[in-house]
Amino acid sequence: MPTYILLTNLTDEGSKTLKNNPGRVKEVNKEIEGFGVRVVAQYAALGPYDFVNIVEGPDAQTMARVSAELASRGTLRILTMAAMSIDEFVSSFG
């Protein structure tokens, strides 16, 4: 399955939710899996983004739907990027 990187920032509402229910992060992972997307790795980060998620999803349309669904809740802002392994990148040169 294709790989995607999700960079997210919590909104003020998202920060409140996380403070009151830190386990919510893992609950969202289960919701994402309901779309057919697998969370490969997840990191809390310091710097311009609060979380970095590496996921595998069936296609760009599914990832757009997941991103729109998550963003519509008002608890986070999300940047979704398609990614490929270095081996895939190198082999693309023939």
What does this structure look like?
Helices cover 39% and strands 31% of the residues. With 94 residues, it is of the alpha+beta class. It has a single domain (3-91), classed as Alpha-Beta Plaits. Strands 2-3-1-4 form a four-stranded antiparallel β-sheet. The protein is globular, with a radius of gyration of 14 Å. The mean pLDDT is 96.
Q: Which characteristics define this entry?
A:
94 residues; four-stranded antiparallel beta sheet; Alpha-Beta Plaits; 4 strands; 4 helices; alpha+beta
Write the layout of secondary structure elements.
Blueprint: E1 3-10, H1 12-20, H2 24-33, E2 38-44, E3 51-56, H3 60-71, E4 76-83, H4 86-91
Antiparallel strand pairs: 1-3, 1-4, 2-3
The run of helices and strands is EHHEEHEH
Give the helix proportion (percent range).
25-40%
Instruction: Indicate the CATH architecture.
Output: 2-Layer Sandwich
Name the CATH superfamily assignment.
Lrp/AsnC effector binding domain/regulation of amino acid metabolism (RAM) domain
CATH-defined topology: Alpha-Beta Plaits
Largest sheet at a glance?
4 strands, antiparallel
What is the CATH C level class, in words? Alpha Beta
The number of helical elements comes to 4
Structural class: alpha+beta
Distance between the termini: 21 Å
**How many discrete domains?**
1
Please tally the β strands and state the result: 4
Radius of gyration from the CA trace?
14 Å
The neighbouring-strand order within the major sheet is 2-3-1-4
Strand share of the residues? 25-35%
Principal-axis shape: globular
